[in-house]
């Protein structure tokens, strides 16, 4: 539920007394509910004489930085039939063609742009002062935005560049996720242009427009009164009156599913629209109800939003309870109700996802739970529980008033204004919410459920709904019952004989990929009237030719009809309207505490603190390490991360062991319970304490992340859960089977995702058949037993292998007491293995199975070996059978680790890591915390973080060159990136370049990217490039330090003996390190990379119907290249070196950031 208040948005609210569940609800009078909400007192809306509007809101975070967004009220729905994609192309040309925008590069500013159905938005995040000129940045930023919107040049050269970029963007983004999104929107909005005017447009039209057409559309959309400028900064400014907005667009007409004029008795259920494709993996059914946006302007509107949130929360909890039953027939069931400024409406959506063969059971469960909630509403205890939790959530989130980033505030303001909501001061929002929530009664929530959920509960039974309304009109909340407006089923073309999915990719929900995005043909599966609207897309009205092709090996055709699905939705079971018994009890504080009272807490703990970094390190006598840092980033909230050394690096190869840690952690998460508690009780305990937790594994660690509200015992509650997880985890056979099924599903989908499969092939070539750093295969997952998974995971949960990092707004004394009490009493699950308190569902284990479980246990990391395969395997090419042509390529190779072992004895940078003295002086005599110079503090010799810093700077320079050359000058791609995969503990790493293009040009794009890497040694990195990279990274770090998650990342492995160079002092020195780095330091790091043909790995993947789209890999047949040998021809060498020359004069700072256009 996306309510427009402090209820959902993470914005600030005043501290008020939380509502007590024990208090009696006091009815709120109708007169009070009609009171108007008061607009944010600091929000200024200024109308200029030309009709434009400026919106200004002061904000303190991040310090000395501001956001400025220029919103043009023109998007894809404003295009005529022969202009599809013109708004997006104009956005590209005006944004990237602005010379004044280029002056922002290297200042630490980030800029970007996007186009959606109704808007084109240009946005800048910038520092308050230009570091080069010393002048305020706000006038410079507004001047650039003014040029972009009102004074664009529309140079012919820029038009052609962006024409290529838009074409490449369409290729890159044409994933199954996008195609499913198009299908959902096409049927949901079949009565208006939202169903066919997707922002990316039609590529044949993009290729055809001349400059006159582009200029005409651009000038027409930015003429007053269409734009608006929204700006958030540390304080109001006189410069804010330069830009602004007002919109006069005719509204898009919708066919509503609720409201006045709805003729319920005569309303027929919409048919089920079917979209079937070979690359889809799961059955996904979406039931929609489109209703007008209810502007949030009165207390009554806020109250309704609160009740809606209660309904959604209750249904999700009930569905979760069904999911943990043995062999549930669904993957997920989700109910959402949200406003969409992008689509200009509100949409209720019931989404059901299942394996193909289980679709009837999944629809059955979803319909049953929705009908129960629609008929009976919520119980008093459910209302009381969620009222308390949601108000505490509102209060806790609202405490972040002074620290919520401007970008979040700005998105909220822009969306609120677009939807007609009153923009509230979060403090006022919470006070109003607390007032109206106190009077909400269960019967009122029940009436809202009757109206809001009838679109799904009474699908196909609209006549019955009309009769029920006539018999009991008072049982429905205004504006009355709702009916479905669209039903869309996205289903796979094939499944296996058991009804499980054949290889494919998972479908996703509506709207996730449409903004400033790409358009593909969605005519396949559309009715004739809609298919006509999508004709001419180059697909001949069919999404695929599955009916003519052979069935894949091991698969059968998945057959389901629209009528069958509609019948399943209409079917009513005998117990559909019988209320289920609810969970009355939650895991009490006293009950959870009993497990820690049996052990005496550790009293022997060592402490190290650093005033410079604010970090405190402790180690308990049982071996658990503790790092913490207090921040005000999220007032009255804390983030915790418990890591266990090991992760997938300690998985053993072979059947029954490979994947044991990966799948085992997921099995433990699926169990969702600890000690003697049921899963529902643990969930309710977390809800009552506002604890969110995630358990997962990566290459190096087992990780449990928790986010918690500090007040009312939340921090202690989180540590109680950690205690129980470490002492009494519950292993369930049913949870293990669900986890195994998830990984099998993910693995089977690999071969039908172009990007995933291409990346997997290059990892196989680089690291061999060992899947240690890849997902386990279905065969490996199938061989796992519960005992093997349990043994592998619990071996890593020993106390002396654990490190807890805590960052947030908490009292250090309270934290240390709670850590001592709950973690200081941990002796490890191994010590309690034979106690009855550990509940494990029965699994028959014979002697051989026990031996297999023991073989899965490892206490040391497995070494990583890079392979040296023949050239044909090192450089590979493959094709994915698909209805749409796309191309992607990866180049990869071995890279250095990101942490060095540290300096030699006597080097001050490593002193604290050895002897724990945080205030030690460096060997040069410079006091810690004092800003050093390069002369007294040699960068690359003494700093443990040197590799981390130089790798980040080098990556920034490389990405900048890739964007300028491959994307901007050669026009070979829309997206190209250089990324590093480094680890804290493991002494290995690798790098990769990812690039996308058309199948015909993907080889050329890959070779151009490789040429950029190799010219790093011949085209000297300049001081200007380094300066811009440094400013970009320092600006990013400044923003990141306001995020508790960033500090958790830094604190991880701070006390690990496997990372001896990581210390409190090196964390404090990061900014100094960035400032001291030189071009020579970058070239010293560059020596760690080898970009020759026989050192790199590459893979090109193409999709489409034509198996001859690309004949050969550019590197597979060529002779080995020496460092001095020339590269294979990329097509236009002159253009390439022209790009390099242009880069040296006007270098950018990276793809998609300051120079990118979304």
Automatic annotation (TrEMBL):
Query: Which segments constitute the Peptidase M16 N-terminal domain?
Result: 54-177
Give any Pfam family that matches.
Answer: Peptidase_M16_C
Task: Mention one GO molecular function.
Answer: metal ion binding
Q: Point to the regions of Acidic residues compositional bias.
A: 542-552
Protein name stated in the entry: Uncharacterized protein
Region listing for Disordered, in residue ranges? 523-552, 899-932
Q: In Gene Ontology terms, what is a biological process of this protein? A: proteolysis
Annotated organism of origin:
Prototheca wickerhamii
């Amino acid at each position: 539920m996306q309510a427009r208040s402090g209820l959902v948005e993470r914005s600030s609210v005043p501290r008020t007394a939380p509502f007590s569940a024990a208090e009696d609800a006091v009815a709120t009078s109708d007169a009070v509910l009609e009171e108007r909400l008061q607009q944010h007192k600091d929000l200024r809306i200024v109308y200029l004489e030309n009709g434009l509007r400026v919106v200004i809101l002061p904000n303190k975070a991040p310090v000395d930085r501001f956001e400025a967004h220029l919103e043009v009220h023109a998007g894809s729905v404003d295009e005529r039939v022969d202009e599809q994609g013109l708004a997006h192309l104009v956005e590209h040309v005006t944004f990237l063609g602005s010379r004044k925008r280029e002056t922002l590069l290297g200042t630490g500013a980030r800029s970007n742009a996007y186009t959606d159905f109704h808007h084109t938005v240009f946005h800048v995040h910038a520092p308050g002062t230009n570091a080069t000129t010393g002048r305020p940045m706000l006038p410079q930023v507004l001047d650039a935005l003014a040029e972009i919107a009102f004074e664009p040049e529309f140079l012919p050269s820029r038009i052609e560049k962006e024409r290529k970029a838009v074409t490449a963007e369409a290729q890159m983004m044409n994933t199954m996720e996008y195609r499913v999104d198009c299908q959902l929107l096409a049927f949901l909005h079949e009565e208006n242009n939202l169903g066919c005017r997707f922002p990316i447009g039609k590529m044949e039209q993009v290729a055809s427009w001349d400059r006159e057409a582009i200029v005409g559309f651009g000038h027409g959309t930015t003429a007053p009164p269409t734009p608006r400028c929204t700006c958030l900064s540390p304080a109001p400014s006189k410069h804010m009156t330069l830009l602004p907005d007002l919109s006069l667009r005719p509204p898009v007409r919708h066919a509503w599913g609720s409201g006045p004029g709805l003729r319920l008795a005569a309303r027929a259920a919409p048919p089920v629209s079917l979209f079937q494709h070979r690359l889809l993996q799961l059955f996904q059914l979406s039931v929609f109800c489109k209703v007008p946006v209810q502007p949030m302007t009165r207390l009554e509107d806020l109250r309704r939003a609160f009740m809606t949130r209660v309904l959604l929360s209750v249904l999700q909890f009930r569905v979760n309870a069904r999911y943990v039953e043995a062999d549930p027939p669904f993957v997920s069931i989700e109910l959402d109700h949200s406003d969409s400024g992008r689509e200009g409406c509100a949409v209720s959506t019931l989404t059901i996802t299942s394996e193909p063969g289980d679709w009837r059971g999944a629809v059955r469960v979803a319909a049953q739970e929705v009908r129960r909630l629609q008929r009976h509403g919520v119980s008093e205890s459910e209302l009381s529980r969620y009222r308390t939790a949601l108000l505490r959530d509102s209060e806790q989130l609202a405490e972040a008033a002074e620290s919520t980033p401007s970008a979040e505030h700005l998105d909220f303001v822009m969306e609120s204004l677009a939807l007609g909501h009153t923009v509230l001061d979060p403090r006022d929002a919470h006070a109003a919410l607390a007032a109206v929530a106190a009077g909400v009664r269960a019967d009122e929530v029940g009436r809202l459920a009757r109206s809001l959920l009838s679109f799904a509960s009474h699908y196909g039974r609209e006549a019955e709904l009309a009769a029920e309304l006539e018999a009991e009109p008072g049982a429905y909340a205004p504006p009355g019952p709702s009916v479905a407006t669209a039903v869309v089923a996205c289903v796979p073309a094939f499944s296996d004989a058991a009804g499980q999915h054949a290889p494919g990719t998972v479908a996703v929900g509506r709207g996730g990929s449409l903004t400033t995005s790409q358009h593909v043909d969605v005519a396949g599966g559309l009715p004739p009237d809609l298919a006509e609207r999508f004709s001419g897309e180059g697909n001949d009205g069919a999404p695929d030719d599955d009916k003519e092709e052979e069935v894949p090996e091991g698969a059968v055709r998945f057959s389901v009809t629209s009528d069958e699905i509609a019948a399943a939705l209409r079917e009513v079971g005998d117990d559909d309207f019988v209320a289920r018994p609810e969970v009355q009890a939650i895991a009490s504080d006293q009950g959870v505490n009993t497990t820690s009272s049996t052990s005496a807490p550790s009293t022997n703990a060592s402490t190290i603190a650093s005033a410079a970094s604010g970090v405190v390190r402790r180690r308990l006598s049982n071996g658990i390490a503790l790092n913490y840092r207090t921040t005000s980033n999220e007032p009255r909230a804390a983030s915790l991360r418990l890591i266990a050394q090991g992760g997938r690096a300690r998985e053993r190869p072979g059947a029954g062991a490979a994947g044991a840690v990966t799948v085992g952690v997921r099995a433990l998460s699926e169990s969702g319970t600890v000690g003697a508690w049921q899963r529902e009780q643990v969930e309710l305990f977390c809800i009552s304490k506002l604890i969110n937790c995630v358990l997962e594994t990566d290459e190096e660690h087992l990780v449990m992340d928790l986010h918690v509200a500090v007040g009312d015992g939340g921090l202690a509650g989180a540590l109680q859960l950690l205690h129980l997880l470490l002492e009494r985890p519950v292993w369930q056979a049913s949870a293990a089977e669900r986890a195994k099924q998830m990984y099998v599903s993910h693995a089977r989908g690999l071969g039908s995702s172009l990007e995933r499969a291409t990346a997997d092939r290059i990892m196989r070539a680089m690291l061999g058949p060992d899947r240690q750093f890849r997902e386990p295969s279905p065969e490996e997952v199938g061989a796992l037993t519960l005992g093997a998974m349990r043994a592998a995971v619990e071996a890593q949960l020993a106390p002396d292998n654990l490190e807890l990092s805590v960052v947030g707004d908490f009292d250090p004394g309270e934290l240390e007491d709670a850590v001592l009490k709950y973690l200081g009493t941990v002796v490890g699950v191994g010590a309690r293995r034979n106690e009855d308190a550990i509940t494990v569902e029965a699994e028959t284990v014979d002697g051989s199975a026990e031996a297999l479980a023991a073989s899965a246990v490892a206490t040391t990391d497995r070494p990583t070996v890079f392979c040296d395969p023949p050239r044909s395997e090192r450089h590979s090419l493959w094709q994915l059978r698909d209805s749409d042509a796309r191309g992607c390529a990866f180049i990869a190779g071995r890279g250095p680790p990101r942490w060095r072992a540290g300096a030699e004895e006597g080097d001050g940078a490593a002193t604290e890591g050895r002897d724990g003295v945080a205030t030690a002086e460096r060997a040069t005599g410079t006091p810690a915390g004092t800003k050093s110079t390069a002369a007294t503090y040699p960068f690359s010799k003494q700093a443990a973080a040197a590799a981390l810093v130089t790798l980040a700077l080098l990556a920034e320079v490389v990405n900048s060159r890739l964007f300028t050359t491959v994307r901007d000058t050669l026009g070979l791609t829309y997206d190209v990136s250089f990324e590093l995969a480094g680890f804290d503990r493991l002494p290995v790493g690798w790098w990769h370049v990812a690039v996308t293009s058309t199948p015909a040009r993907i080889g050329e794009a890959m070779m151009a990217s490789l040429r950029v890497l190799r010219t790093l040694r011949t085209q000297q990195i300049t001081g200007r490039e380094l300066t811009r990279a440094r400013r970009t990274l320092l600006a990013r770090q400044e923003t990141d330090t306001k995020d508790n998650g960033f500090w958790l990342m830094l604190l991880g492995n701070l006390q690990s003996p496997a990372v001896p160079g990581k210390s409190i002092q090196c964390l404090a020195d990061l900014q100094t390190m960035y400032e001291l780095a030189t071009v020579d330091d970058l070239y010293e790091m560059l020596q760690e990379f080898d970009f020759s043909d026989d050192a790199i790995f590459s893979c090109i993947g193409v999709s489409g119907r034509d198996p001859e789209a690309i004949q050969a890999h550019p590197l597979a047949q060529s002779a080995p290249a020496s460092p001095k040998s020339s590269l294979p021809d990329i097509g236009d060498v002159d253009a390439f070196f022209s790009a390099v020359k242009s880069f040296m004069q006007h270098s950018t700072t990276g793809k998609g950031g300051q120079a990118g256009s979304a």
